[in-house]
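Encode chain A's predicted structure.
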Amino acid sequence: MATLLYRLGRFSYRRRKLTLAGWALLLVLFGVGAATLSGPTSAAFSIPGTESSRAMDVLADKFGAGSDAASAKAVFTVGAGATVTGASERTAIEAAVAALGQAPKVAAVSDPYTSQAISQDQRTAYATITYSVPVTDVSVAEREDLLAAGRSSGATVEYSGEVTKTVEESHAAEAIGILVAALVLVVTFGSLVAAGLPLVTALVGVGVGMLGIQIATGFLDLSSSTSALATMLGLAVGIDYALFVVSRYRHEIAEGHDGEESAGRAVGTAGSAVVFAGLTVIIALVALSVTGVPFLTAMGVAAAGTVAVAVLITLSLVPAVVGFAGLKILPKKHRADPAAVEHRSKVPFGERYARNVLRHRWIALAGALVVIALVAVPAMDLRLALPDDSTAAEDSTQRKAYDQLAAAFGAGFNGPLIVVVEAAAGAAQTAAEQAQEVIAELDDVVLVTPPTLAPAGDTAMLTVIPNSGATSEATKDLVRDIRDHAKTVTGATLAVTGATAVNIDVSDTLTDALIPYLGIVVGLAFVLLMLVFRSILVPLKATIGFLLSVAAAFGALVSVFQQGHLAGLIGLETTGPLVSIMPIFLIGILFGLAMDYEVFLVTRAREEYVHGAAPDDAVISGMRHGARVVTAAALIMMSVFAGFILATDTIVKSLGFSLAFGVAVDAFLVRMTIVPAVLSLMGRAAWWIPAWLDRIMPDVDVEGEELTRRLAASGQPHGHGDPQMPAAA
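Encoded structure for chain A:
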C-alpha cells in the first residue's frame, strides 16, 4: 500500500494543475447536482418493524392516507383578567383560525370553540391544523406562511408540531472551530502558508461531502442532523489528516529530498496511516447499519462518505497544493536552510514528556485512571430518550406552545398515546370499549377518549392522555402497562403508537443495540490493531483505552446535559434524558478518532523497537516524533467539535460537547499518558505475537518500512528535482 501511495503522491505533485482542476470540476458538478436534486430533511425518527411503526401503517391503511399528513397546533393564550371566550378575544382567535385555513397546503383547521379545546381556566385554547401532504412536502416558505397567518389577526399564538420547525443553518460553530484550528496550525508550523493549506483542503472535502449529502436528500429520507454530523467530522479529520501529511512532507524536505520525492514519501508513509485511520472511522460509521435503524444507518453512511472524501483529498489534493506552495511551506527563517527545521538543539516537548511519564509510570498510570474513573461515575445514571418540544430553546415558538399546553391541560397532553384495536368486522367497537375501560384503570392515565371506528368496522382508535410528560419514565411505564394488558381484551389485538410511543420504541431499540455494536467496534479495533502492530497486548491495551475514553465522555455528557452541572457555561437551557442516538454515535466516532492517535504514536515506537531499540527508548522515540503533531491534531479536533456546542439543536450541541471532551481525554490522558506508561511496564512483552499468527497475517506496512527498503535498494532516493525546492545533497 505504501508504494502505491508513494506513486500517487508523486503524480499529484507533478501533475498538480491537473489534480487541482479535477477536484474543482468535481466540486462544480456536485454543486449543480445539489441545486437541482436536493430534497427536504426530517427531524422525525422511526424504526420499521416495531409495534408503534406497524400500528402507524394500520392507521394509514384503515383510516385513510391522510393519517401520515403533516399537522400542527396553534396555541392561543390571553393575559391575566381575560379569557379566550371574551368577545374581543374570541373575534381575534376566530380570525386567526380563518387565516390559518388559508395557508398553503392546509386541509383543515379545527375551531377550538366547537371542539371544546379550551382549558378550564379559559385562558388557553388550541386549534389543530391538518395538512393535505406529509411534512416532507411542506417547504420552508410554506411553514413561514403558516406562522405569519395566525399572527396577522392580532391574536397571541404559538405553534407546536414538526411542520413548524425549520432547520437553522448557522455557520458560527464551523467558523469558530476553523479560527481556533488556524491558530493551532500557525503555532505548530510557524508558517501561514503551511497553516492555511490543511484548512483549505479540509474545506474542499467538506464542500464535496455536504453537496453529496444534499444530492442524497433528493432520493433518501435523511435526518436534519446529518449535515451537521458530517460537517463536524469532515472538518476535524480533514484538517488532522492534512496536518499529518504536511508535517511529514516538511520532514522529508529537511532530510534533503526535492519536492516531488518529499511528496511521494509523505503520502507513502503518513498517507498510509491516514488511510488506516480513515478506514477505522468509516467502518465504525458504516457499522451503524447493524442496529437495524434506517435513519441511523443513513446518518452513518453520509458521515462515512464525508470522511472518505477527506482521505482522498489528503492523498491527492494535499501533495498537489504543497507543490504550488513551494518553500513557503516552511517557516521563513528556515527557507534558506530547510535542514534547520529538523536539527534543533532543544529537546522536543514529546521526548521530555515521555521521559517524565516513564520515570513515574505507576503514578502517571494511577493518576490518569483515577481522573477518568471520577469523570465516568455519572454515566451510571444514563437515561435515554428522543427530543421533543420540551427540549427546544426557551424563546422558540415550539417551546412556548409546549409549556402553555402543559400548564393548561397537563404535562401528558403534549405526548398522547394512540391505541389501535383490531378485531373481526363488527366486533371492533365492543373490543375498543373494553380496552377503554381497562386502560382507564391503569396508573398515570388522565383520560381515554371514546373509540373512533374505521369505515371497514374492523379497526378502532383510542387516544390516551398520560399524566406525565412524553419523555418521563412514568409514560414509558404506561406504554409497557398497556401492552401487558393487551391480552385482557378478548378477541382483539391492541397496539400502542403515536409520536410518544414511536420515540419510546426507537429509544429501546437503540439501547438494546448498544452492547452488540460496542462488541463489534471493540472486536474490530483489536483485529485492525493486531494487523498494524503485529502484537497481542498492544491492541488489547488500545481497546481498553478506547473504552476508558468512552466512559469518561458518557460521564461528562450525563453530568452536564442530564444533571445540569455547568450547563449555563455552554448555553444549555434545558436538561433531561440524553438523545437516544448519542451513545452509539459517540462510540463509533470516538473509536475511529482514538485509533488515529494510537496509530500515529505507536507505529513509530514499533518501528524503533523492530530496528533494535530498547522498549523504553522505542516509546520515547515514538513520543518525540509524534507528540507535537498529535497534540496539535487533538487541539484542532477539540476546537472543531467544541464550536458546535454553540448550536441550538440539542443533538448537535451534545454531540459536539461529548466528542470534544472525549478527544481531550483520549489524546492527553489515554494515548499520551496511559499508553507510554503501560508500554513501559509491559516491556518486550508488548510486542510479542505467536509465530504462527505472524505468518498468516497480511503485512499492511502502515509505517512504510517496506517502501523505505525499496527506495534504498533502488539507489534513487530522490525525485526528478523541482525548481522550487533545493536540490538533494
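The longest strand covers residues 124-131.
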